[in-house]
Amino acid sequence: MTRAAVLPSLGTPLRVQDIEIPDPGAAQVRVRLAAAGVCHSDLSLSDGTLRQPVPAVLGHEGSGTVTAVGDGVTGIAPGDAVILNWAPSCGGCHYCGLGEPWLCAGAGDAAALPYATLTADGSALYPGLGTAAFAEETVVPAHAVLPLPDGVPLADAALLGCAVLTGYGAVHHSARVRPGESVAVFGAGGVGLAALQSARIAGAGTIVAVDVSPEKEALARAAGATDFVLAGDTGDAAPAKRIRALTGGHGADVAVECVGRADTIRTAWSATRRGGRTTVVGIGGKDQQVTFSALELFYFGRTLSGCVYGNSDPARDLPVLADHIRAGRLDLSAMVTERIGLDGIPAAFDAMLAGRGGRALVVF
User: Fold this and answer.
1) pLDDT at position 286, please?
2) Of 17, 175, 177, 181, which residue is the least packed, with the fewest Cβ within 10 Å?
3) Which candidate, 64, 65, 62, 14, places its Cα nearest to that of 163?
């Protein structure tokens, strides 16, 4: 019997309940969770913005220890410390063949299959994004776990599974920030804080954090922001105008949008210089429509790109991130503003909706 935060149906509060997890089958592993980050994507799954069968156990940013392995599993053994990978690549689809594993056509297959049952009535449960990290234990495909690099604390390592890979990848793989360039990061939550740290690591010059909450300024500056702009201001204090003023009147070389709202994407685009790059990381609803005129697309010559999972290959990027952590360039614990139990997840969802805090971490 395992305690888990269960989403009974879309749009309803999570409930901490007892569930039954089977022994791992062929090519599966069972993991005892050490920690799980509360990500905005979990909120998007809970309200139906992202597709997820229910009832489900959400949570996809996790770390823990392998307790059992199924038939055919090699290279992973009980006792190994691992990070969950919510988007494991199959290695055989069209996108994997192109060297773009973050777009793998089969990455979401596990989320559509029941993986556990409710103790109370035996009803089937689905794993959120295939990982179900909001539980004391989970069972996942063997290729959905990655070895924990040496020198990385097990609990804080949960953030590597989503926020850090996404924020780092947005800066280094999608936007390809170069030393000395100016960067504006919209949204100073978990992913935004990772993007700010990554911009600093990349050697960016002016690094502007934009957020709706003035309380985020200290967090943002600690992560590497040289300047902070309050979203929602108007007139000469409007974010795009302030960013242009901070970058010699031109706009940022790179803007990274971590919110997923049409108005924020539009502002990030407007805050980018002619010929600059705007990278959209935030996940918005299909009702969020962003409009551009044909003339401005031609005149400004900007690049607008979406970014899935930071365009990251975890097997390639985790060793690099671990090196930054060991060298003190990347601070995982500085991104965590609250450590909670399973029953604290609904309040963490509310805090995300209100724009408060960085990353809440469920610690088991």
Assistant:
1) 87
2) 17
3) 62
pLDDT tens across 259-307, in order? Answer: 999 999 999 999 999 999 999 999 988 889 999 999 999 999 999 999 9
Nearest Cα neighbor of 133 from 73, 54, 59, 71 is: 59
| DSSP designation for 306 | E
C-alpha–C-alpha distance, residues 307 and 172, integer Å = 11
Sort residue 190 into left (φ over 0), alpha (ψ -120 to 50) or beta: alpha
pLDDT in tens, 299-308: 999 999 999 9
CA distance to 173, 180, 204, per residue, from 169 (Å): 5, 18, 15
- Residue reference for tokens 């060793």: 319
C-alpha count within 13 angstroms, C-beta hemisphere, residue 73: 22
Measured torsion, CA atoms of residues 166, 60, 99, 164, in degrees rounded to the nearest 10: 20
Whether this model's pTM surpasses 0.90: yes
Spatial contact of 125 and 118, defined as CB atoms under 8 Å apart: yes
Cα–Cα distance measured from residue 210 to residue 340, given in angstroms and rounded to the nearest whole number:
26
